[in-house]
Recover the amino acids of this structure.
């Protein structure tokens, strides 16, 4: 199935959890925050949340800035 | 005597706050921050680079939240909604840390704040329990309104972000200081050490800067200069300057002259 990830289209297996996506992207243990369809998903929920087709996912981090 | 800066109940010995953008690399960022003595550093919140260099360190690994107070900003936001959304994401990624720098821009050329959207965002954020340090114009009325909404610090600009022009309107800054019950931190537009010293001599509680250090020819040396300028300006303010006079007042006595 397809989801939208940080503005791009990504193909993921049906029933893929957020935890699995994070592992796939090699972001495990990194300080990130994730929003799905405009709602923040707390880290504790990553294993419980299964992605659905067309979900809009945003994964953000801190970068240098003024 | 312990002259500390208190923001949201936390004490800081440094009155210099710095941004982490525009440096050549993380090593320079780290050196500049360390040399400056800053304890509060701002960061931006942006999309993660996916699939590219996963082993690359991130800013939070270079500047640990154990050692520094990390201040996420809402840079690039032009609406209250985007700013609020950014703050919520920042709080999540920083494990509930709720001190934020609110900035809502009105214009891409000058990066002046949209004070109406800023007020709107500040109201929402304070209600959601954020501790808001708010970038604003040097309008004393807006500054007071932001304080009354519950912001923990008000941060009037000296001049446009990255312009290096120094304090354009010291009289407005003084008016803001007169009316304020929260820390007033000049944020944006500082260019060189004397600009920072002037801000502190006016009575400001601190100065936040980024470009002034990052775009100096020698950023680490400028970080050192800024540290001293903030300290010197603060001491001069606390020392109570001499009055300005129209006419001269001799420093050596007339009595005992032999000519």
């Amino acid at each position: 199935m397809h989801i939208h990830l940080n503005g791009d289209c990504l193909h993921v297996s049906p029933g893929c959890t957020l935890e699995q996506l994070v592992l796939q992207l090699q972001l495990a243990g990194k300080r990130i925050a994730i929003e799905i369809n405009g709602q923040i998903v707390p880290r504790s929920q990553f294993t419980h949340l299964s992605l659905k087709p067309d979900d809009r996912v945003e994964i953000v981090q801190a970068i240098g800035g003024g | 005597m312990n002259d500390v800066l208190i923001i949201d109940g936390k004490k800081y010995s440094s009155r210099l706050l710095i941004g982490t953008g525009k440096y050549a690399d993380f090593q320079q960022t780290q050196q500049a921050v360390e040399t400056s003595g800053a304890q509060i550093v701002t960061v931006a919140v942006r999309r993660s680079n996916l699939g590219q260099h996963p082993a690359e360190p991130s800013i939070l690994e270079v500047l640990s939240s154990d050692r520094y107070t990390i201040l996420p900003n809402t840079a690039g936001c032009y609406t209250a909604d985007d700013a609020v959304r950014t703050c919520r994401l920042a709080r999540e990624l920083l494990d509930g840390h709720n001190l934020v720098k609110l900035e809502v821009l009105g214009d891409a050329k000058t990066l002046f704040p949209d004070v109406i959207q800023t007020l709107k965002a500040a109201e929402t954020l304070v209600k959601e329990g954020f501790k808001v340090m708010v970038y604003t114009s040097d309008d004393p009325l807006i500054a007071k309104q932001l304080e009354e909404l519950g912001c923990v610090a008000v941060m009037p600009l000296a001049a446009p972000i990255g312009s290096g022009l120094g304090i354009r309107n010291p009289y407005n800054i003084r008016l803001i200081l007169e009316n304020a019950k929260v820390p007033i931190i000049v944020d944006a537009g500082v260019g060189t050490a004397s600009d920072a010293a002037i801000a502190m001599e006016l009575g400001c509680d601190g100065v936040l800067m980024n470009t002034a250090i990052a775009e100096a020819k020698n950023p680490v040396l400028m970080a050192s200069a800024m540290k001293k300028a903030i300290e010197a300006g603060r001491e001069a303010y606390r020392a109570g300057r001499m009055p300005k006079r129209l006419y001269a007042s001799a420093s050596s006595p007339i009595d005992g002259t032999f000519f």
User: Anything to note?
Assistant: The CA atoms of residues 38 and 56 of chain A lie 8 Å apart. Chain A has a mean pLDDT of 95. Chain A touches chain B through 24 residues (CB under 8 Å).
